[in-house]
Write a structure and sequence with these properties.
By secondary structure, the chain is an alpha+beta fold. It has one domain (about 90-325). Helices cover about 40% and strands about 10% of the residues. The chain contains nine helices and eleven strands. Helix 1 crosses helix 2 (about 40-50), helix 4 (about 135-160) packs across helix 6 and helix 5 (about 165-185) packs antiparallel against helix 6. It is globular. Mean pLDDT is about 80; it is low at about 55-65 and about 190-195.
């Protein structure tokens, strides 16, 4: 794929995200200066204020996060102040879903569905193609799943359940609530017959992989956000506070800590309401391979990478987060 001929977007994505951390820190300390007290809610509210959907000049659709808009520009400023850009592609009109029925897959045949994709190099040395929408899933969509998981954990702890047991049910809540979004209106859709669906008609396992890592991220914002050390692996939180000096950032953000091959829809494939849709995609992938536009004629494009990515998720839940095609 010609996108792989360019440097990966790792540096650019990290640079953009780190600006959000700095702005959230400044906002939290403005609140601290008024009270001279450390409240985790201050950093929480400040960061959410940065990443929640916003309108720019009243014209950007609120379904798109502000960070997604910045990423689509491809422009960023390094920590040393250098202006740079990373390579991205806007999916063409003749995409792999273009032959799909608009009745069966109404959302897939709207222009807003297809936006920026970029090349990200994972710590496992896997070249992945990630959609900008995954950044919105990671920072924003996952907030609700994190909240429900934390509420579940705290509720069970109050019943004197052990922390490991409470953690299991909290993680189960996170995974199941995330899965509901892919099984409902914004995924496979609700029924109006086989060929009439409300929804995309697609269940995106890459979205599920992304949502889970987003929930993990939110547990790491401060020590007070963590519930049961979900996937923390002894990592420091991003922020800490004391009543003398206020908030400070003690850990640098890196997307490499979260993005893995499971986020790539070509590696962790979707499932579709109509069985024939998958066969159509397999034909298109083979055709693209013959044209030199993809590195594999198979689908998933890199099954081993999909299997390897499972190690980043709770083993008991991988079948809910990864495509059935990765288990065949």
């Amino acid at each position: 794929m010609d996108l792989f001929k360019n440097p990966p977007a790792n540096e650019g994505l990290n640079a953009i995200a780190r600006q959000y951390f700095k702005r959230a820190l400044n906002e939290a300390n403005m609140r601290f200066n008024k009270t001279k007290k450390c409240h985790a809610k201050d950093i929480d509210d400040a960061f959410r204020h940065e990443v929640r959907n916003k309108k720019i000049a009243g014209v950007i659709d609120t379904i798109e996060s502000l960070m997604e808009v910045e990423i689509k520009s491809g422009n960023y400023t390094t920590d040393t102040g250098q202006k740079k850009s990373f390579e991205f592609r806007v999916a063409p009109k003749n995409h792999i879903y273009s032959n799909f029925s608009s009745l069966a897959y109404p959302i897939l045949n709207t222009p807003s569905t297809f936006g920026t994709i970029f090349y990200f190099h994972t710590t496992d040395n896997v070249k992945t193609i990630i959609g900008a929408d995954k950044i919105g899933h990671f920072f924003e969509t996952s907030i609700d799943f994190f909240e429900k998981g934390k509420e579940k954990f705290n509720k069970l702890i109050r019943t004197n359940m052990t922390a490991p047991a409470a953690l299991f049910f909290a993680v189960k809540m996170v995974v199941e609530e995330s899965e509901k979004t892919e099984d409902g209106l914004f995924g496979i859709g609700t029924g109006l017959g086989k060929y009439m669906r409300i929804g995309s008609g697609v269940k995106s396992y890459a979205d599920l992989a992304c949502n889970y890592k987003g929930a993990v991220f939110w547990t790491e914002l401060t020590s007070e956000h963590s519930f049961g050390e979900i996937d923390r692996k002894n990592k420091k939180p991003y922020y800490e506070c004391d009543d003398d000096n206020g908030w400070k950032q003690i850990r640098e953000f890196n997307f490499e800590d979260y993005i893995n091959a499971g986020w790539d829809e070509g590696i962790n494939p979707n499932t579709y309401k109509l069985p024939e849709s998958l066969e159509e995609i397999k034909k298109i992938v083979k055709s693209l391979y013959l044209e030199g536009k993809t590195e594999s004629p198979h689908f998933p494009l890199n099954k081993q990478a999909c299997v390897d990515a499972m190690k980043y998720y709770p083993k008991v839940f991988v079948e809910k987060i990864f495509s059935p095609l990765c288990f065949d």
